[in-house]
Specification:
By secondary structure, this protein is an alpha+beta fold. The chain has a single domain, classed as Nuclear Transport Factor 2, Chain: A. It contains five helices and nine strands. A four-stranded antiparallel beta sheet has the order 4-5-8-9, covered by helices on one side. The protein has a three-stranded antiparallel beta sheet with strand order 3-6-7, with no helix packed on it. Strands 1-2 form a two-stranded antiparallel ribbon. β8 and β9 form a beta hairpin. The longest helix is centred in the N-terminal third of the chain and has 27 residues.
């Protein structure tokens, strides 16, 4: 016979873990704008996995691997964008949790130079819990 309190505790623990995972993903996504706008390559190297992919679309450069992604932030072009007032804005992402994996659909906006026009991207990334830390790929 299964004790009802044990089942209720397990269900509550699972719900709490889902809430904690979702909050950690929100923090991970929210960390991108300030790290990109300040050239914090160390942050990108920490949050992207070794085989992570940063794909900005057909007309923009991207990278594969946490070190290559971090290098974008110290590149001449990115540093010039920072000096020119680069500013990323992100909204609350849609998150689908599935055990230790999550599909995350954030939206990101960056001014294009003209204060009226904003480039908006909706992307999908996967967050993975690995050895007690959450990383994106």
């Amino acid at each position: 016979m299964v004790h009802a309190g044990t089942e209720a505790s397990k269900a509550l623990e699972a719900r709490l873990r889902a809430v904690e995972d979702r909050l950690e993903i929100y923090n991970l996504i929210a960390g991108h704008p300030p790290s990109a706008d300040t050239g914090a390559d160390y942050y990108a190297e920490t949050v992207y996995m070794e085989d992570g992919v940063f794909d900005r679309g057909a007309n923009l450069s991207g990278a594969k691997g946490n070190k290559a992604i971090a290098a974008i932030l110290t590149s001449e072009g990115h540093q010039a964008a920072i000096a020119g007032g680069l500013a990323h804005f992100t909204g609350l992402p849609y998150v689908e949790l599935d055990g230790d994996h999550a599909s995350v659909h954030p939206s990101l906006r960056t001014p294009t130079g003209d204060p009226i026009h904003v480039r908006m991207r909706a992307e999908k990334c996967v967050a993975v819990a690995e050895a007690g830390r959450l990383s994106t790929s």
